[in-house]
Design brief:
The protein is α/β, with parallel strands linked by helices. It is 36% helix and 17% strand. A hairpin with a 4-residue loop joins β3 and β4.
């Protein structure tokens, strides 16, 4: 039947779920070929199916339009709106809105009517049922819901194409882990009381509490320029230019040379920064300054990250690695490269392609297992290489195995350059990760930071 347009209205629930997008394009199509399908309305003359078409013909100043009217029971409106929009290309925001409605119905044991949903069984979780109804995978829906619950503002960025679902998901996971690592815990409080732990709530620019040559190993990650701030007001990391940051950081680290033993090692983890689209090359500029101070650079280790921070730029690659620089005061420094055969209890789980000889491990070198005869490992470190290398070390550790990646990025240098009970320093302590690793490895630890983690 035909109904005068003035009698019709959008269903209020439709505005809660869907956006009236691309109306101009639809108006052009209707002007050329007409309205191919009638609108579906309820007993109150509200549009159940065809809200975009209704908006288009209103703007085209039609007087009447073809409709099918059906009686809608209270509580069925939302399901019918979703049912009639199945073929529509939806935004992430609209998918989330549909999920909220369908999840509510399935959890209550509703939404089973075959004329309203395509799911014929209520077996499985509500999310699996909803993902089938929405036509997306359960894993994709799970990530989308995770993003919505933790960072709802990211949904708009997804719809604008600034971020992908996977980028958003990984970024939020990273932020959650960082927050959790900074929360005070019982274990951290107990550790600070131990005699092998010292912490100073102050800048490490002047470490007068430490004697000359008291530290065996330094492992630290200073604030990156224009990415992190060392204090809420002023301080290292807040410089206006990368050049100023390079000078300030290299000067800040001067006291590290005084407190480090002549046979000690200094590991500096530092990432780079884009500014006005130009990668600043900060890490190597800092190292050049440190070499001018007399430091010897033994290795530039490439730390390949498993889950690098997503980049929203569409004109360059996502940075997926950082540098760990190994610096020493003299060429005669302590370094244990020895790797031992693994016992049955400590053998890592290796890929099937790893060869074996007479049931044992092969002496050949693979990316997963350093040579048992002690051949030097490479300076490119990823998760598999570091985890297996740590497992291979002579670990005189009581209790649990060293903490999982990425703590092993810290574990391996400490094992290679220090012995049990020797002192390890982190002049930018942050959340205390280096200290926790030292506690597991039986090393003494001292940390500096302006904030208590």
């Amino acid at each position: 039947m035909k109904v005068n347009i003035s009698k019709l209205s959008h269903h209020p629930k439709n505005q809660e779920i869907y956006d009236l997008s691309s109306i101009e394009e639809l108006m052009d199509s209707i002007s050329e070929v007409g309205l191919l399908q009638p609108l579906i309305i309820d007993q109150h003359y509200q549009i159940i199916s065809g809200n975009r078409r209704f908006e288009s013909v209103k703007r085209l100043r039609w007087e009447d339009v073809e409709v099918h009217q059906r009686f809608i029971e209270v509580g069925e409106e939302e399901l019918l709106l979703i049912h009639y929009n199945k073929q529509r290309i939806k935004s992430f925001k609209e998918l989330i809105n549909e999920y909220i409605i369908l999840d509510k119905y399935y959890r209550k044991g509703q939404g089973k009517r075959t004329d309203l949903t395509s799911v014929k069984s209520n077996k499985g979780s509500s999310r699996d049922l909803v993902s089938t109804e929405l036509g997306i995978s359960s894993s994709q829906l799970r990530r989308l819901v995770f993003i919505y619950k933790n960072k709802p503002e990211y949904i708009e960025l997804l719809d604008k194409g600034i971020l992908t679902v996977n980028q958003s998901y990984l970024q939020i996971q990273r932020e959650i882990k960082e927050r959790e690592s900074k929360k005070p815990s019982t274990s951290n409080s107990e550790t600070l009381i131990k005699s092998n732990w010292r912490f100073y709530k102050k800048s490490s620019h002047n470490m007068s509490e430490l004697k000359k040559g008291e530290v065996q190993t330094i492992f630290t990650s200073p604030p990156y320029w224009n990415k992190r701030t060392y204090s809420e007001e002023k301080g290292l990391g807040n410089e206006k230019t990368s050049e100023e940051f390079v000078v300030n950081l290299s000067e800040h680290l001067r006291d590290c040379k005084r407190v480090l033993k002549d046979r000690g090692s200094f590991f500096l983890n530092l990432g780079d920064t884009f500014y006005n689209g130009n990668l600043q090359n900060v890490p190597h500029k800092v190292i050049l300054k440190l070499q001018e101070q007399g430091w010897i650079l033994r290795n530039t280790i490439i730390w390949s990250k498993t889950n690098p921070k997503p980049s929203s730029s569409k004109s360059n690659l996502t940075p997926s690695y950082e540098f760990i620089f190994h610096l020493v005061k003299t060429i005669d420094y302590d370094y244990d490269r020895t790797l031992t055969k693994l016992s049955d209890k400590t053998k890592p789980s290796l890929p099937p392609r790893h060869r074996s000889v007479n049931g044992g491990y092969s002496k050949s070198v693979t990316p997963y297992l350093p040579n048992v005869n002690g051949k030097n490992m490479g300076d490119y470190w990823n998760e598999d290489i570091v985890r297996t290398s740590v497992a291979n070390q002579k670990l005189n550790i009581k209790g649990e195995h060293p903490a999982p990646f990425p703590n092993e990025i810290i574990t391996l240098p400490i094992l290679q350059t220090s012995k049990e009970f020797e002192l390890v320093l982190d002049p930018f302590m942050g959340s205390g990760t280096v200290g926790r690793v030292c506690d597991k490895l039986g090393r003494n630890f001292i940390g500096y930071d302006l904030k208590m983690f």
